[in-house]
UniProtKB/TrEMBL annotation:
The chain crosses the membrane at residues 20-41, 53-72, 79-96, 102-121, 128-145, 165-187, 218-240, 252-268, 275-294, 300-321. It is a multi-pass membrane protein. This is ABC transporter permease. InterPro entries: ABC_transp_permease. It is found in: Cell membrane. Coiled coil: none annotated. It comes from the Bacteria. Keywords: Cell membrane, Membrane, Transmembrane, Transmembrane helix. It comes from Rhizobium mesosinicum. The keyword Nucleotide-binding does not apply. The keyword Membrane applies.
Length: 331
């Protein structure tokens, strides 16, 4: 019995190893950050850091849904930008108008994800090619909505979602936890979630086992678009405006890939979790905060973050090459 329990714990450890590493890395870096911050460990410092990290966390979760299926979505950043621009038009006015605007923004993100999934699944195109093309379309729509920065957002709603809960806990972290509970947990335990993991591990085997492969992949891309839309809403809540920022969209896409790798999600698919991706995003974002606290030269900060991004992706590629080598042993 004890051996069985030991084996079960060992299995769980192997499955969650990446998530645990990302969580410990984030905690260590955050402790260093608040220890060296002029204001120290205060609710205001925690709230500011949480608000900045939440944006990347939502996009990293979006990327995770797709990467688990052995795909990649290079349009998540541009969906975020599109939804930011749309929210600056719609999430205003009376409570009813604001609520309808929020629903419209979320449905737009969902539609963008569905478009990606439909083209990839039924058009049989590679995910990287498809999402590069659709990202250009999404950015074009964002630019059409906001050729110059502008717009506004319901300030009461923005303040409610970016302030603190019970005066201590950042509201953005509460929303992030609720999104994990409402979207990720049910998906990961559903037939579609198990199929998504199976597709990432061996799509042909999943298909031969009569698993709903197409519907699972479509659900993954649709939810990726929805989560990117949530990130777009939060960007509007933070900035109180909309902007078709091409550089920002690309940055969030690249950083989302780094975050999922740091969070233990395999680029080969079939392994990892959105919780790990969230911790990876928090850790990656804390790197920027550390550079600020230690007064790192701003001209060198993009270079340093680029090196971290390269190392993170390299770690994922090393894991992918190991899987391929193991497969070659049996051929």
């Amino acid at each position: 019995m004890s051996m069985q329990a030991s084996g079960e714990w060992r299995y769980r450890y192997v499955q969650q190893k990446g998530t645990l590493f990302a969580a410990l890395l984030f905690i260590l870096m955050f402790i260093i950050y608040v220890s060296n911050h002029p204001a120290g460990f205060t609710p205001n410092v925690v709230q500011t850091a949480a608000n900045k990290a939440t944006l990347l966390a939502f996009v990293a979760m979006a990327q995770c849904f797709v990467v688990i299926t052995a795909g990649i979505d290079l349009s998540v950043g541009m969906i975020l930008i599109l939804c930011n621009c749309l929210a600056s038009w719609l999430v205003v006015g009376t409570p009813l108008q604001t609520g309808l605007g929020v629903i419209a923004v979320l449905l737009t993100g969902l539609a963008c994800g569905l478009l990606n999934g439909l083209v990839i699944i039924f058009g049989r195109l590679q995910p990287i090619v498809t999402t590069i093309a659709t990202s250009a379309v999404f950015y074009g729509l964002a630019l059409l909505l906001r050729p110059t920065p502008g717009g506004s957002v319901n300030e009461d709603l923005a303040d409610a979602f970016t302030s603190t809960f019970l005066g201590v806990i950042p509201a953005s972290l509460v929303v992030l936890a609720l999104v994990i509970l409402v979207i990720w947990v049910p998906f990961s335990r559903s037939v579609f979630g198990r199929t998504a993991y199976a597709v990432g591990s061996a799509e042909n085997a999943a298909y031969m086992s009569a698993m709903p492969v197409k519907r699972a992949k479509l659900a993954a891309y649709a939810l990726a678009g929805l989560l990117s839309a949530v990130g777009g809403l939060y960007l509007t809540f933070f900035s109180y405006t909309g902007e078709a920022a091409f550089a920002s969209g690309n940055a969030y896409t690249l950083y989302s890939i780094a975050a999922v790798v740091l969070g233990g999600v395999s680029l080969a698919g079939g392994k990892g979790s959105a919780i790990g991706a969230v911790f990876g995003a928090l850790a990656f974002r804390t790197i920027g905060d550390l550079l600020f606290v230690f007064d790192f030269d701003p001209l060198w900060q993009p270079l340093f973050q680029g090196v971290v991004l390269m190392l993170a992706v390299s770690i994922g590629c090393i894991g992918l090459s190991r899987v391929r080598n193991r497969l070659e042993w049996f051929q």
